[in-house]
Design a protein that fits this description.
By secondary structure, the chain is of the alpha+beta class. It is built from seven helices and five strands, in the order H-H-H-H-H-H-E-E-E-E-H-E. The strands form two sheets. It has a three-stranded mixed sheet with strand order 1-2-5, covered by helices on one side. A two-stranded antiparallel ribbon has the order 3-4.
Length: 196
């Protein structure tokens, strides 16, 4: 936690050697006191910036270093090229940095959640003699098809750290579709279902 200017000024005064001369230099309003005040203001500013830098080291909270983080992660890419808000960009960054790959439902639900989307996944089974009579009839090609179900329009809201020229909300599922299409197993087909 950053020290305040008054704390730094007290530290400067505490470092003075004992004696009448130094006591008179340390009086409020003296030239030396004003010098220590100016130095204390600068030290406190630097201390606050150090705290800011520590916060920027976390991709979940980064604002100033977001472009540097994106460059490190290889963003923007084909899917994230049109992101409008800082929060969308952070979500894409965190998803890219934490994604280790997978083919399970849980993996793709987690990828979507990291981007700010809530989804479910349906898988289709070909109809066989053992299939219950009330189940839909799918042929063998459907074995490699799955459906991502999401809200018709997912709303991503800006945060308090967002710049003033950024929209307060963004609607759309293009990022979800592009990311799932990019990460899905190559031998599968993915469908997207929206709403009800």
């Amino acid at each position: 936690m950053a020290k305040t200017a008054s704390e730094y000024k007290q530290q400067f005064k505490a470092l003075l050697p004992p004696g009448k001369l130094w006591e008179s230099l340390g009086r409020e309003g003296s030239v030396a006191d004003r010098l220590w005040e100016a130095k204390a203001q600068e030290y406190a500013r630097i201390d606050r910036r150090v705290d800011d830098l520590l916060a920027e080291a976390n991709p979940l909270r980064t604002v100033e270093m977001l472009p540097d983080w994106e460059e490190f992660a290889g963003l923007p890419d084909v899917c994230t090229g049109t992101l409008l808000t800082v929060q969308q960009r952070r979500n894409a960054l965190v998803q890219k940095l934490t994604s280790v790959g997978g083919q399970s439902r849980a993996y793709f639900v987690g990828v979507a959640a990291a981007l700010g989307y809530e989804i479910t996944i349906d898988e289709f089974e070909p109809h066989t003699c053992e299939t219950a009579c009330d189940q839909p009839i799918y042929d063998e090609d459907w074995r490699w098809t799955w459906r991502v179900n999401a809200a018709e329009q997912t709303i991503i809201e800006s945060t308090c750290e967002s710049p003033c020229n950024e929209p307060l909300r963004v609607w759309g599922n293009e990022l979800l579709e592009c990311t799932i299409e990019r990460l899905k197993p190559a031998h599968t087909n993915v469908l997207f279902g929206y709403g009800g």
